[in-house]
Amino acid sequence: SCCDGFVQEAEDLQGALVYLDDGALEAFHFLGGLPFLLQLGARGVCQLENASACDETVVWNGVVEELSRIVIVTSQLLSDSHRYVLRCIHTPLGTDAFTEYKDLLLQDVLKALTPEERLENSSGPSVTVKHLPMLCCAVTPRVFVFPSSAAFATAPLSSKREVSFLSAGLPAYDNGLAWDEDELPPAGATLHAHFLHDLAGQLDLKFDIFSLGPLAHLVGKQLTEISGDGFGRAKKTAGLLLLDRSLDLITPASHGDSLVDKIYSFLPRQTHQESTASVKRPSMDVRIPTLEEEKSFVLETSDETTYEIAGSLCTAWDFQGVNRLDILFEKRAKDGALLVRNWIQDILRQEEVEVSGKSRLVTNSKELFSLATTLFNSSAGLKQAGLVQLGKAAAEVTTAARVTQWEAFASAERVLGISAADGIETLASQLEDLIRQSTSDHSVLSLRDALTILIVGYALAGEYSTKEGGPFSWEEERSLKEAVTDAILKGPAEPSLDFLKGLENALEMHWEKEKTKAQNQISSPDDWSEDQWESWEDNDQQEYSQMQLKLELNDRIQELFNALHRVAAARTHYPLRETRLLGTHRGVINELLSLVLSNSDIPGLKHHSSTVGRFLKSGLGRFGLGQAKHKLSDHKVLLVFVIGGFNAVEVREARALQGDFDELLMGGTTLLTPNAMFDLLLGSCHL
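Predicted structure:
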């Protein structure tokens, strides 16, 4: 369905030079890639942000003709992408944006022509502006997200003016206040509603919309208004469950048992062009590193050309690879790694390649890497490149160091969960211990890691405390702040912390001074040099600079803890608190689907009726003939869409509770990891 829009425009692509921006390139990686566009007749494909006059010479289809057609595919708003098209438009676009943009683009092109060229072509080139629906990353046939640099993903989901603001990349939490009808909704809400409307059209479905969370209610309302009453040809109905990510910040910030989550957490991603967007999200295109010494992953052809098998996890034209990734979403980490090993061994046996070692119920990084190397060097190496990459990715994230680090995270989070259930009195001291231990030379976790766990700790504390101004006492929080301050002043944080931007030089000077001071303490006072005596005379100036640094650092740390207070408040207002046993934690999707399948009432869940539906409900109600109550369980197809994003653990939990649904699709703004949650809540996206 995602490719249908391009197939319908295949005539325009014949012989055209196609430009794709960052977001469109990322989406096409999952929609069939370059082979798909070339099959539709494209002359060549180039990146929009790096457009050059030399692109005219690009000919990939073997037909050398004069370039007469250019097709530009952008995932941005027209007013934002035009600087890459002509870089000279400043006129805002109105409601009839496509027509206005076409006219303005023609004006700019004609201005750039010489007088002679204008006489030859007075009307200018032919320009057509069309809407391309369903520009998304279809990670698997049942899981999709937005391209990370597309307007859908980078548009703000909330404003700092809101009292319940968490981050521009997350919906505001429910503070019990209704949305002001006179206030403009966040740009991200409108774009999400329009995408879901396009999705319903492409899938030929009519959504029966349910929502939970303030922004989800707003998106559901907008989607209902856009979709209208659905008169005309009858369409198949599907349930749509819209959820705010802010309902549950614990699950995506936790280190769950999932191989897919580990791959997206540990492995690097494709980098983007510099952007001024208010929300920056990591690319969905995972880059599997290939080291220079790994000669087994470099193919040399007869003409001495070398091809390096490195980069993406899987591609849409590798149908087996896409289905394998879909299966891995349902598996825990050890089961997933074992499954990858078995897949590789099965292919090797089919190719009559001897597989060394016995089949065991566990596997490790060394075995996976060895099998991936053997498969690549076999006759099926290129054909099974997707499986080679999957094996190498699994090997990368199952090394002893990474398994130890992930388990340290998971163990700390489990301990916090148990402590919170028994009472939050010991929670603050445990969090303080984690922060202080992170500065130890023998610690597996860094300071950034400890602060990521702090998100989980504050969210858990918020569930068991309704105190204003943070869940902990003033003394407990002061100790936490001092621990963070001491950890920062002790030495460089690896990796660096975004909320310290602007203080790097002052901190570098402080760390260097502390290092020199420690070295001087080792030597005898009699050995002091003249330079050291001169620096001692400058103590007053140094103490003043030190005081300035500490004051600025205290302000930054106060901002950090203000953000954590809002994390706790978001959990305090969790609408499903009363539906489960105190002391148990399950993700919001897990809890919701359990309630749906048991036909239980769900606090805060809203059903969005069309105009006709509301009329029938109110009109027939006067005669005691009200319509039956709508339920999600009435549908055979269900789409769960999380505004703000989801992780692989939630996909697995949702599928485990699929119940009577014939088809369960999972979609959202992005695929979240604990690192992404840190950036959204405590990193540069917020502070």
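Summary: The radius of gyration is 28 Å.
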